[in-house]
Amino acid sequence: MLTSDFDYELPEKLIAQTPAEVRDECRMLVLHKDSGEIEHKIFKDIVDYVNPGDLLIANETRVIPARLIGKKRGTGGVCEILLLRPMIENKVNSKVAKWEALVRPGKRLKPGSDAVIEFFDIKGNVAIKARIIDWAKDLKNAQKGERVVELTTELPSLDEALHEVGKVPLPPYIHDYSGDEEMYQTVYSKHEGSAAAPTAGLHFTPELIFKCEEKGVGWATVDLEVGLDTFRLVDEENAEDHAMHTETYSVPESTVNAINETRANGGRIFAVGTTSVRSLESCFLRTSSIEPCCRAATSLYLMPGSHFNVVDAMITNFHVPKSTLMMLVSAFAGRDNIMNAYEEAKKVGYRFLSFGDAMLLV
Fold first, then answer.
1. How far apart are CA 155 and CA 82, in angstroms?
2. CA 29 → CA 18, 59, 81, 129, 349, distances in Å?
3. Residue 69 CA: distances (Å) to CA of 61, 150, 172, 192
4. Torsion angle defined by CA atoms of residues 303, 44, 29 and 352, in that order, rounded to the nearest 10 degrees
5. What local confidence, expressed as pLDDT, does residue 114 receive?
6. What is the 3-state secondary structure (H, E, C) of the chain?
7. Measured between alpha carbons, how far is 324 from 328 in angstroms, rounded to an integer?
8. Confidence of residue 139 (pLDDT cuts 50, 70, 90)
9. Statement: the pTM of the whole predicted model exceeds 0.90
């Protein structure tokens, strides 16, 4: 299976640089995976596609303020750190923590340089200090230039300090966005831990969720900590040679109970986003059934030929060419259907990627 099979031309003008003014009034392409039929709708029309007894499952993770811009002590040179993954030994509410991160300028911030980077609050006080102490432990991540950084603070906790000086990181293809950062969070987000948003859920409003529930549709959540690897292209010519990144996810008992009840009553499971899909399908594969799990690791790689044991329908966005997400939606709805739908979306001017329009795969 060639990576090029999941490539398509994406004009720069179709990459959304701002979110829809009203979350649920973006466009929604509906793709019927059995027939290939395409419909053009508005996202709030989702209520017409769910039936009483169906279940919507969303990823309630929240994006952390992981982008830090500060100055190198001594020289005053501007430096940037993008936190990717916390190290396993970190303690909750600690004043010291280690993270795997990307740094800029990379040539001047190598392990062993003894450089100290300071990050200042709005009053000009140092809220966080950072040192580059090692290369990333994973060889592939180290080859990408990722480092291990040690953060320290004099504030009550690093969590508080990050909220003083950090910014929510946006995907690299969104340039100069100066709007409300909360628009890059879902309205139902709770637990911070992601470096990127589960963007399919950005289209929901509290009112739309209420309308679905009022119709008799259930609402449940999982928690998957989304990493920036989700934006990376697959480099290998053969897609099957790609080493899938690992993420941490949880499926609570209440969600397991809701799934079992939905199944028993003949309802369908609608996954809100690819991260919800990966959480649910990974959970099933652990024991060949859906069982509660807390902070389990998954490197599940879904591509054409993969079987879906839990998810019946999927809400998603339009994805980066040659990405594992293109392979996942192709596995679910068929590669030819997906590629045809993408060409149709381009033809009629849909907005692509994280701030863009939605797809419903049923």
1. 20
2. 19, 21, 37, 46, 11
3. 24, 15, 16, 20
4. -80
5. 86
6. CEHHHHCCCCCHHHECCCCCCCHHHCEEEEECCCCCCEEEEEHHHHHHCCCCCCEEEEECEEECCCEEEEEECCCCCEEEEEEEEECCCCCCCCCEEEEEEEEECHHHCCCCCCCEEEEECCCCCEEEEEEEEEECCCHHHHHCCCEEEEEECCCCCHHHHHHHHCECCCCCCCCCCCCCHHHHCCCCCCEEEECCCCHHHHHCCHHHHHHHHHCCCEEEEEEECCCHHHHCCCCCCEHHHCCCCCEEEEECHHHHHHHHHHHHCCCCEEEECHHHHHHHHHHHHHHCCCCCEEEEEECCCCCCCCCCCCCCEEEEECCCCCCHHHHHHHHHHCHHHHHHHHHHHHHCCCCECCCCCEEEEC
7. 6
8. low
9. yes
Strand partners, 203: none
Structure tokens that stand for 264 in this block: 């028993």
- Cα end-to-end span (Å), the chain: 25
CA distance 362 to 337: 12
Judge contact between 277 and 271, C-beta under 8 A.
yes
| Tokens of residue 253, six digits | 């008992």
Q: Would you give the distance in Å from CA 298 to the centre of its chain?
A: 14
> Which pair of structure tokens corresponds to residue 209?
């969720």
Check pLDDT > 70 for residue 141.
Answer: no
Q: Is 271 exposed, middle or buried (0-12, 13-18, 19+ CB in 10 A)?
A: buried
Q: Is the pLDDT of residue 251 over 70?
A: yes
pLDDT in tens, 284-298: 999 999 999 999 999
